[in-house]
Structures
1.
Amino acid sequence: MRGSFITFEGGEGSGKSTQVALLADRLRLRGIEVVTTREPGGSPGAEAMRLLLLNGVIKPLGPTAETMIFAAARDDHVQTTIAPALARGAWVICDRFLDSTRIYQGVLGNVDRRIIRALERATVGDAMPGLTFVLDVPVEVGFARVSDRGQIKDRFESEEIEFHIQLREAFLDLARDEPKRCVVIDASQSPEAVATRIWLAVVERLLKPRTTKTAPRAAS
Ligand code: T5A
């Protein structure tokens, strides 16, 4: 038995955490066991690494070292939280996953793609998401939402506006490259409207009974 693995990706303030919670509620109403989690973090070891990654302590070591710490956190998260949940048939919904490394460290940080892919193979294994939502909002909308929270900015939120414009483009490129796995959602609408579009995609791609077409037998 294997559960479904769904990830949410996108820029800062695109509404990922909000939509993870709304989708989990809807699935639980159907009697499905759902584990919600996040990256960096999602297990005690990875949460400890999250603090170092987001408070900027690791930044001076450079993007390659930073990528390796993200990978170490992911390894613990997959082994401790994600793989056991999927193995018992639960659905896992994760707020950011490997695509964030591909984009933040790979595209924006210029870390060699071969390093990123090698670390993916070592840490993710067959715990690949079957469905990834890329929540797309104009940068200024995401920023306004995050600044409304009034928290101190983390290491990535403090980057220049140009960084976030490139980030948005890179996520859209990624979704274009992997259309079977990735669904782009216009996340500038109300949380409820966004949740409805996500739900329709989940029904279509994961919940609809699969009708397997079998080729007609040749008459003998
Ligand atoms: N990172 C992560 C890497 O560099 N490499 C990696 O491999 C990984 C895994 C994580 C940072 O780490 C980086 C990327 C990130 O910079 P984080 O603190 O987890 O940092 O932050 P984010 O993932 O960016 O999430 P945010 O909390 O900033 O935003 P969300 O989760 O997208 O948005 P959410 O749901 O918290 O909503 C933000 C605010 O907007 C409101 C909410 O109520 C909330 O106040 N909101 C809406 N308002 C209007 N309309 C809507 N549709 C709304 N949806 C939410």
2.
Amino acid sequence: MGCRIVLLGMPGAGKGTQADQLAEALGIPHIASGDLFREHLHQGTELGRLAQGYMDRGELVPDEVTIGMIAERIARPDCAEGFILDGFPRTVAQAEALGRLLSQNGTRLDMVALIRVREEVALARLAGRWTCRNCGAVYHTLFNPPRQAGVCDACGGELYQRSDETEEAHRRRLKVYQEQTAPLVEYYRRIGLLVEIDGEQSIDDVQADLRATVETACG
Ligand code: AP5
Ligand code: ZN
């Protein structure tokens, strides 16, 4: 049993926001590749230093590095009953590597949910985003403000803006998404795993749709 889920969607679609809530509801870990890179960066590891340049430019970190980091993460015991992947896979090579890793363990993905939004909606969301330095929760100055400005509702941590939150990096990330990640939509549709969610609804309505699809896919 268990539930192994991938969330797909362009930067700003709301993957992180939805994955946080879903992980809590299902009691399985939320694994965000971007968050893992940012933790490495914060800890000053070699991997973090390598990733920083790519991230700040809005480009993808090379596949070998990214796949190795995720392989190590999903092999940990807390993933035995499932996980929610957010931001991985992002290339066909990453998707193929994930499929191989899971089948080596006798498991497979249960569902890939595409959170669909238009580019202009994604850009508006990215422009107002604030992230908790401590727990990674995300807020938005207009759409999802914290109760107290600059302070995380969940843990009291300090809110900051990511170093890739420039207009230029946002546009570059959207372009990279269209070129390198959008092909995964067809890839997962073909193998019958794709479900599509309207990401332009309220955060609660997107979550409700997501939970309904999880119930169908994972029982
Ligand atoms: P990553 O951290 O994964 O960023 P991303 O995919 O670009 O996605 P975001 O985190 O920007 O957006 P999101 O969809 O999670 O939206 P969120 O919930 O925050 O990647 C960063 C970088 O790391 C990459 O550029 C790359 O360099 C590297 N990287 C990561 N993974 C990699 C991989 N696999 N391979 C290679 N490189 C990799 O929401 C956005 C905002 O909108 C928030 O403010 C939120 O409050 C608000 N919001 C959310 N939902 C709603 C709603 N329904 N209505 C109104 N507002 C909403
Ligand atoms: Zn917090």
